[in-house]
Design brief:
The structure is a single chain. This protein has nine helices and 13 strands. The chain is an alpha/beta fold and about 300 residues long. The longest helix is centred in the middle third of the chain and has 12 residues. It has an eight-stranded mixed sheet with strand order 8-7-6-9-4-10-13-12, with helices on both faces. The chain has a three-stranded parallel sheet with strand order 1-2-3, with helices on one face. It has a two-stranded antiparallel ribbon with strand order 5-11. The protein folds into two domains: about 80 residues, Cytidine Deaminase, domain 2 (3-Layer(aba) Sandwich); about 200 residues, Dihydrofolate Reductase, subunit A, CATH 3.40.430.10.
């Protein structure tokens, strides 16, 4: 900011691409001189796949940097602040930390635990059903709810689904940028992971399903979901993961306590007792129930969107 006016802004599209500071400084140009930079995360100080952002701020002549929180990445972890201060730049740390944590949940969790931030999305009826007994499910929720899902996908580095969902629905699981208020180039396509333990898709019927025609689709044949999530972080730098799958996969993630955030789109309709349930989860007693805090709710006419965190 320069004279209380925003002169440049940016965000980090994906791993390997320029960080937010690069885009903001490019937009600001010469106006970055003696300006104040506000960043949600400590500017990096090392050369990886991108140059150090702290050095970019120094070279641009920024006078002050306000940082919401320090970077837990051991390659940074305070070094960015030190580099800025050594260059004579005034640094303030700890502003709007809670809000910044919410923006960077995936990256921060990955750096601290080597696990991604996992969102589970479910579209359901009032009676907790996701499709008819025949498998018919298009569409339970409204166009407004489905458009909202595009935001979740755009925020995700990877989408996980199951082979049953691929066979039943033949989904694309892509990001429809025309439904988002950002240019297509700023919305990198998330990776798609298909849980295919019985190997029904990877080696057969490839021309029948849209996801199988994608050369970058990842097939996971193991039962260990924790190992999959760790590999998405270590091998693919996917820090935010969205699970869009059927009751069995949803139940697996929930029962293994791998879900950080549950998002339910509930349509005002009833599908009946024979319809398929939203989650395949069978506790033997109330003591084994899964409970959640309702973090947020909103109406996506005529549906209800609930955002919940596991207790």
């Amino acid at each position: 900011m320069q004279a209380e006016a925003i002169v440049g802004q940016g965000f980090h599209p994906k791993a390997g691409q320029p960080h937010a500071e690069v885009f903001a400084l490019k937009e600001a140009g010469a106006r970055a001189l003696d300006a104040t930079a506000y960043v949600t995360l400590e500017p990096c100080s090392h050369t990886g796949r991108t140059p150090p952002c702290a050095l970019g701020l120094i070279n641009a002549g920024v006078k002050r940097v306000v940082i919401a929180g320090l970077d837990p990445n051991p390659q940074v972890a305070g070094r960015g602040v030190k580099l800025l201060e050594q260059a004579g730049i005034e640094v303030t740390v700890g502003i709007l930390t809670e809000q910044a944590e919410a923006l960077n949940r995936g990256f921060l969790k990955a750096m601290r635990t080597q696990m991604p931030y996992v969102r589970l999305k479910i579209a359901t009826s009032l009676d907790g059903r996701t499709s008819m007994a025949s498998g018919e499910s298009k569409w339970i929720t409204s166009a407004a709810a489905r458009e909202d899902v595009q935001k979740l996908r755009a925020q995700s580095g990877a989408i996980i689904t199951g082979s049953e969902t691929v066979i039943a629905d033949n989904p694309q699981l892509n990001v429809r940028s025309n439904q988002l208020a950002v240019p297509p180039k700023q919305v990198p396509a998330p990776k798609v992971v298909v849980l295919d333990r019985r190997q029904r898709l990877e080696y057969s019927l490839q021309s029948d399903y849209q996801l199988c025609r994608r050369p970058d689709t990842i097939y996971w044949r193991e039962d260990n979901l924790t190992e999959l999530l760790k590999k998405l972080v270590s091998d693919h730098q996917c820090y935010d993961v969205l699970v869009e799958a059927g009751a069995s996969v949803a139940g697996g993630f929930l029962s293994q306590q791998l879900v950080d955030e549950l998002i339910v789109y509930q349509a005002p309709c009833l599908l009946g007792a024979q319809a398929r349930p939203m989650v395949d989860f069978n506790p033997l007693s109330l003591a084994q129930q899964l409970r959640f805090n309702i973090y947020g709710h909103e109406t996506l006419s005529p549906d209800l969107k609930l955002t919940l965190f596991p207790l």
